Amino acid sequence: MSDHIVDLLGDFLEDRLDASARAAVEAHVAECRECAADLAFARVLREQETEVWAGHPTPDRIVAIASGEVAATAEEEAHLKVCDDCGREAVWVRSTPPVPAAVVDSRGRRRVVSWAVGITAVAAALATFVLMPRSLDSDELRAMARFEPLPVQIVRGGEVGDDTAERRLRGLEAYRDGQYEEAVVAFQPLAANGDVELRLYLGSALLLLDRPREAVTVLGAVVSAAGSDELRDLALWQLANAHLAGGNHQPARLALSQLRDLGGAHAQAARDLLDVLD
User: Which is nearest to 46 in space by CA: 232, 183, 215, 241?
Assistant: First the structure.
C-alpha cells in the first residue's frame, strides 16, 4: 500500500472495498496518525452531508400526500417546496384526474363509466407531462460544471521546522502548480484540524481531480463554517459546480440560489446557470 490512503477513503466509508483491501486500510490507519485523522474528518463530513441531503419522501409517500390520503408533516411540506424533483411528482399527482372507475352493465360486462372522463384524464396527464420542465440528465449537468482553480496567495510564515506551516505551504504551492493530488495529501490533515480556508482549497482540489462526491462533502462543510461572505461565495460556487459535475440537479440549484441571493462575485454566474436549470 502507498504511504497514504486518501484515494481509498470514499470507498472505505461506503463499504465498496473487498475484505482484503478493507483490512489493509484498517491496518494502515492503525499505524498512520495522519490517515487516521483524515478518516475521522471524512466520517464527520459524510455524516454532515447525509444530514443535509437526506429526507426525500418515498414515491408512495408523495402520492399519498398529493392525493390527500395522508397529511404531510411540516418537514415534508418544507421539502416539497424546495425540492424540484419531489415537487414535480406532487404536481403530477395533483393535476392528473383519477383513473375512470369501471362498472358492471346489465350483461355482467365491465365498462368505463364515461369515455369523456377517460379522454379528459389522458389529456390532462399528457398536458402535464408536456408542460412540465424537462429535467437535465447527468451528462448535461456535468457539461455545465466549471472546473476553475481558486486564486492562490502564498504567505510564508511560521517558525522554522513548524510542520503545519510547511505542510500548508507545500499544499498551496502544489495547488497553484496544478498538482492537485499532492495538494490533497497536504491539505487533509490541516483541514481535519478545522482550517476552513484549507478545507475550501481541499474541496476545490477534489473537484479539479474530478472527484465531485468527495468535493461536495468538504465544500458543504465550508459553506456552513464560512466566517465571511467572500469565503461563502467562493465555497458556494465550488459546491454548485461539484454538484453539477456529479449530475445532482436539485442540490446544484439550491447552492446556486444561495449564491444568487448572497449577491457576491459569482451572483451573476449563478443567475445564468439557474436560467438554464429552470
Answer: 215
41: containing domain: 1-69
Instruction: Using the structure block, give the residue that is written with the C-alpha cell 456552513.
Output: 224
Instruction: Count Cβ atoms within 10 A of the Cβ of residue 77 and give its class: 0-12 exposed, 13-18 middle, 19 or more buried.
Output: exposed
Q: Do 205 and 94 share a structural domain?
A: no
Q: Report pTM.
A: 0.55
Last residue of a domain, one of 84, 117, 135: 135
Write the CA distances from 11 to 15, 17, 18, 173, 187, integer angstroms.
6, 6, 10, 28, 20
C-alpha cell at 93: 399527482
Summarised one tens digit per residue, pLDDT across range 121-172 is 444 444 444 444 456 677 888 888 888 899 887 665 544 456 788 888 899 9
Query: Which residues share a beta bridge with 240?
Result: none
* Co-location of 172 and 272 in the same domain: yes
Residue identified by cell 369515455 is 115
Q: Give backbone dihedrals phi and psi of 101, rounded to 5 degrees, phi first.
A: -75, 155
Of the candidates 62, 56, 211, 231, the one whose C-alpha atom is nearest the C-alpha of residue 151 is 231
Write the DSSP symbol of residue 67.
T
